[in-house]
């Protein structure tokens, strides 16, 4: 029993190792395939050919591709991601700096996604075939298939330009910038900890719209998945047993059926959270949100390959980590895996 | 005294091919006894059991001249009323404990829940009652089994847990829907004995839905034989061998016997006229 558990853990580690290796390789390939001249990004368009040549050699681009790959692997594995051209500081420092903004955005979005999507899915499943179910399915289909940047721009027009409910670009109004202590890097928490309520409201007004729009996708995804998970459970015999006992429909749904989808749900919430990081790349551009997505976009447009490759690698790492996390949660919450 | 009166019960299902008539004009009364409903697959015997608890899916149409439990008309019960009948007054043992127990709840929680739905008692009292009940269904280490999950116990134990769960609120009627069909033959008899002992001691009326005539003959007082959604014969269990209806006779004659040598077992004959 214990032995097989260790074996399982070893297998898991092996899979992670292979995944990471594949991820590194893919990132390298993408980096080489992109129609961007990394030398030009460093020297600028006005450099003469001898400077160009010098930097070209410095970056090791004259070496055979597999040698470059080898050096690249060595750098990555030793944690050396190089310097970003845009900021002049190590890429790792840049990512650590911009990350809190994105995590804050994605976290508010996922809270919205779970808080609305899951009840919506349960509602649709328990009202299967009725009007509410059809409406939910149509709405979530739209939410799932409309591009987030388009909804973002429409949202800006309505809620910022017309109604003036939402804050404009950025994470907080200019007046409050630097008016509170940065404990965590999350403005919603920092402003509260500093006791600056006005700043908190400003931060809330700024994050609400991008987070809601970013979360719309998760609402739809989680809603649709919850619906199908619940439908599967509601047709099981134990649900009938629960009804036979005389339980109220609410207990039957939440105490019995819902409890059985929790583990599956955790897995897809983790996946959805990873998806939000991707979505952030688009939404941050629309809302000028100074986070990871905008950093990645700026670097890409600048041809700053060190920053781009490290960022892509980072997103991949997040997915690997979230997958691992959901596996662990599976083990913790499902009695059948013990 | 009649505990349950069923008069002209009809159940039909809306399907893509139109209305399917599953139960036709079924009438019977249940006293404090063990009543068996037998029939082949699709004869409507389980549907009758479910109709009594209003458990049929929403695609079904249930009508009856009378569906009376004590002085309560089940047909006109609203959701709240039927919920107070379920479990507390009429409960149901399902076929296969592999599917009928909630996989992510401990056995004990599921049993004490059955009690806590209807009685205002503390968690602790419910646990004590559940452990006592587990003891009554001959589970040897009740405290330990209380904390186990359904996948950790065997099928026979699962069905005993199911019985415990349905008996613990001390209902007036238990509907047992093929309670031993999913079990190994070796444990079927144990489970039946436990069920039999409990319903007799606690004065519970039993509706035993089965397709096993031999079992029913030994175990029940009275037998309803169903064919094509109709009750074709109602007969005392010990008089089964003298049944008059050709369908019941056919069922009896197609049973192989250990004592007498038989050549070829007769094939069951079916007559559309029985349904008229």
What does this structure look like?
The complex is a heterodimer of chains A (338) and B (276). In chain A, 76% of the residues lie in helices and 0% in strands. Chain A is globular, with a radius of gyration of 24 Å. By secondary structure, chain A is mostly helical. The model of chain A has no long low-confidence stretch (mean pLDDT 84). Chain B has 276 residues and is α/β, with parallel strands linked by helices. Chain B is built from ten helices and eleven strands. In chain B, the strands form two sheets. Chain B has a six-stranded mixed sheet, sandwiched between helices. In chain B, strands 1, 2, 4, 5 and 6 form a five-stranded antiparallel sheet that branches. In chain B, helix 4 crosses helix 5 and helix 7 packs parallel to helix 8. Chain B is globular and about 60 Å long. The chains are: A mainly alpha (338), B alpha/beta (276). At the A-B interface, helix 10 and helix 11 of A face helix 2 and helix 7 of B.
Q: What is the strand and helix layout of this fold?
A:
The complex is a heterodimer of chains A (338) and B (276).
Chain A: H1 2-33, H2 38-43, H3 49-58, H4 65-77, H5 91-126, H6 131-145, H7 148-162, H8 187-193, H9 197-234, H10 237-244, H11 249-286, H12 292-302, H13 305-333
Chain B: E1 4-15, E2 18-30, E3 34-38, H1 45-52, E4 60-63, E5 66-69, E6 72-73, H2 79-85, E7 90-93, H3 97-100, H4 107-116, H5 123-136, H6 142-146, H7 155-167, E8 173-177, H8 185-201, E9 205-210, H9 213-219, E10 222-227, E11 230-236, H10 246-253
Parallel strand pairs in B: 3-9, 3-10, 7-8, 8-9
Antiparallel strand pairs in B: 1-2, 1-4, 1-5, 5-6, 10-11
Helix pairs in contact in B: 4-5, 4-7, 5-7, 7-8
């Amino acid at each position: 029993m214990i032995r097989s558990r260790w074996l399982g853990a070893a297998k898991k580690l092996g899979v992670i190792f292979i995944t990471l290796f594949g991820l590194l390789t893919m990132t390298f390939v993408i980096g080489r395939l992109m129609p961007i001249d990394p030398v030009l990004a460093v020297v600028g368009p006005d450099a003469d050919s001898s400077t160009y040549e010098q930097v070209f050699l410095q970056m090791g681009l004259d070496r055979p591709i597999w040698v470059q790959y080898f050096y690249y692997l060595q750098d990555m594995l030793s944690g050396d991601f190089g310097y970003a051209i845009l900021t002049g500081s190590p890429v790792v420092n840049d990512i650590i700096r911009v990350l809190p903004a994105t995590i804050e955005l994605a976290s508010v979005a996922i809270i919205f996604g779970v808080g609305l999507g899951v009840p919506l899915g349960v509602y649709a499943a328990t009202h299967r075939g009725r009007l509410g179910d059809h409406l939910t399915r149509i709405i979530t289909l739209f939410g799932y298939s409309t591009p987030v940047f388009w909804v973002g721009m429409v949202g800006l027009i309505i809620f910022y330009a017309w109604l003036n409910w939402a804050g404009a670009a950025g994470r907080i109004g200019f007046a409050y910038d630097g008016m509170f202590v940065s404990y965590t890097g999350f403005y919603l928490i920092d402003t509260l900890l500093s006791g600056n309520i006005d700043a908190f409201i400003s931060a809330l007004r700024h994050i609400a719209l991008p987070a809601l729009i970013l979360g719309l996708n998760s609402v739809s995804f989680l809603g649709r998945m919850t619906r199908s998970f619940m439908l599967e459970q509601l047709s099981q015999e134990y649900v009938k047993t629960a009804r036979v006992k005389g339980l109220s429909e609410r207990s039957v749904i939440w105490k019995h059926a819902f409890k059985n989808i929790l583990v599956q749900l955790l897995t897809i919430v983790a996946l959805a959270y990873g998806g939000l990081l991707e979505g952030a790349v688009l939404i941050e551009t629309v809302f000028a949100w100074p986070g990871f997505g905008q950093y990645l976009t700026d670097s890409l447009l600048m041809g700053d390959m060190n920053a781009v490759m490290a960022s892509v690698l980072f997103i991949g790492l997040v997915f690997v980590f979230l997958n691992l996390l959901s596996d662990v949660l599976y083990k913790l919450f499902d009695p059948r895996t013990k | 005294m009649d505990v349950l009166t069923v008069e002209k019960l009809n159940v039909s299902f809306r399907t893509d091919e139109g209305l399917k008539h599953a139960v036709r004009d079924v009438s019977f009364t249940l006293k404090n006894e063990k009543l068996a409903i037998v029939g082949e697959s699709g004869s409507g015997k389980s549907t009758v059991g479910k109709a009594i608890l209003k458990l049929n899916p929403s695609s079904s149409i249930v009508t009856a001249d009378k569906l009376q439990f004590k002085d309560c008309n089940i047909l006109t019960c609203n959701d709240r009323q039927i919920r107070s009948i379920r479990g507390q007054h009429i409960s149901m043992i399902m076929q296969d404990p592999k599917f009928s127990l909630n996989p992510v709840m401990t056995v004990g929680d599921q049993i004490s829940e059955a009690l806590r739905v209807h009685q205002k008692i503390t968690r602790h009292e419910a646990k004590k009652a559940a452990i006592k009940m587990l003891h009554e269904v001959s589970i040897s280490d009740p405290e330990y089994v209380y904390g186990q999950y359904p996948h950790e116990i065997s099928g026979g134990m699962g069905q005993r847990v199911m019985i415990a769960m349905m008996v613990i609120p001390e209902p007036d009627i238990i509907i047992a829907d093929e309670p031993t069909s999913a079990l190994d033959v070796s444990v079927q008899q144990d489970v039946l004995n436990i069920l039999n002992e409990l319903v007799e001691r606690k004065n519970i009326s039993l509706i035993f839905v089965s397709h096993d005539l031999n079992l029913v003959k030994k175990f029940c007082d009275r037998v309803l034989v169903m064919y094509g959604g109709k009750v074709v014969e109602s007969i005392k269990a010990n008089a089964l061998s003298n049944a008059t209806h050709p369908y019941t006779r056919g069922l009896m004659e197609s049973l192989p016997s250990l004592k007498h040598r038989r050549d070829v077992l007769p094939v069951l004959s079916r007559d559309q006229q029985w349904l008229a």
